Amino acid sequence: MLLEVRDLHVEFRTRDGIARAVGGVGCTVDAGETLAVLGESGCGKSVTAQAVMGILDTPPGRITRGEVLFQGRDLLTLKEEERRRIRGARMAMIFQDALSALNPVLTVGDQLGEMFVVHRGMSRKDARARAVDLMDRVRIPAAAQRVRDYPHQFSGGMRQRIMIAMALALEPALIIADEPTTALDVTVQAQVMDLLGELRREYRMGLVLITHDLGVVADVADRIAVMYAGRIVESAPVHDIYKAPAHPYTRGLLDSVPRLDRKGRRLTAIKGQPPNLVAIPPGCAFHPRCPLARDVCRTDVPPLYEVSEGRVSACHFWRECLHGRD
Ligand code: SF4
Ligand code: MG
Q1: For site-directed labelling of 83, which of 76, 125, 267, 288 has its Cα 20 to 30 A away?
Q2: Domain CATH for 49
Q3: Is 22 a domain residue?
Q4: Domain-ending residue, one of 259, 278, 297
């Protein structure tokens, strides 16, 4: 097991009170596996990722419970210096907004090269050559010239490729990509996603792909974990989820995106808004929006029911959802 997150809890102190951003998340990622973490914005996906990476400082969040086992060691018990070493070399993160993640006053060649100078002790010249290689690997045309350009001189899609190159530089065992294609237009999204999938296979990395967009994960993910109000509400192999969701929230997400296998079907948005994390509804947090909700849903928090091997759902009525209308 490459990554195992156990019972992770994260809180934020806000003006309105304590926000329970992550309320007991558990998940695993194997080497070479892609886990997609899916949910509307504000459901705790990014906070979970930041807690795993150990970069939960802005805004000030606090891990109150849980374990983050990376290659068998609990990262939450390591010294910051040791974590920083792991973060640089063995796990890397890709963000949505490359322009703010890259340094605007350094050429991309210098930024990529820096990784090799700092972590591998290479000379500037060798590091520069490796930077060009990497830019080639992520298919940036004319890499040998473009290595001298600054981030703002690249298109959004090309900048995202540079971020991928930065993440790949030290050949990490795990990459966490937080909405890596959200800012791009649809065709560029598909290209960047294909590239990420291809490199993941080639380097046999674990990949955690965080997204609000079910449309982008079908082809690349092995498994999907659906998050709602700081919890994972369904987790299953990707094909199971597409065939028949076992949680009404997953069904709502599926019904709100266009799908090739369901041409001509009306798209319906999930009614209402995700809850404020300072005041999560009692019982099942999804009950105010759920078409299947009953009295018990308003009082009893659903545990994670085992639906089948490798598949869980936090819905009292998962059977009904699974075999229900379609
Ligand atoms: Fe809906 Fe109840 Fe299931 Fe929650 S537990 S998803 S409210 S049916
Ligand atoms: Mg986010």
Answers
A1: 125
A2: 3.40.50.300
A3: yes
A4: 278
Q: What value does the mean pLDDT take over residues 215-219?
A: 83
Residue 68 pairs with which residues in a beta bridge? 5
One domain, residues 181 and 264:
yes
Question: Which atom of ligand 1 is closest in space to residue 287's alpha carbon?
Answer: 7
Residues 81 and 184 in one domain: yes
List pLDDT tens digits, range 14-63: 889 999 999 999 999 999 999 999 999 889 999 999 999 988 866 678 99
Taking the CA atoms of 197, 202, 203 and 205 in sequence, report the sign of the dihedral they define. positive
Does the pLDDT at position 88 exceed 90? no
Least confident among 19-28, 40-49, 230-239, 259-268: 259-268
State in Å: Cα 43 to ligand 1 middle. 17
Residues near ligand 2 ion, CB 5 Å cutoff: 46
Domain-embedded: residue 324: no
Q: Which atom of ligand 1 is nearest to the CA of 285?
A: 4
Q: SS3 of 291, please?
A: coil
Q: How many domains does the chain have?
A: 2
User: From edge to edge, which strands make up the β-sheet containing 61-70?
Assistant: 17-29, 3-14, 61-70, 73-74
Q: Is residue 241 a part of any domain in this protein?
A: yes
What span, in angstroms and rounded, lies between the C-alpha atoms of 262 and 289? 24
- Is pLDDT at 325 greater than 70 in this prediction? no
Residue where one domain finishes, among candidates 131, 149, 169: 169
Interface predicted TM-score (ipTM): 0.97
Q: Are 121 and 204 in contact (CB under 8 A)?
A: no
Range of the domain at 126: 102-169
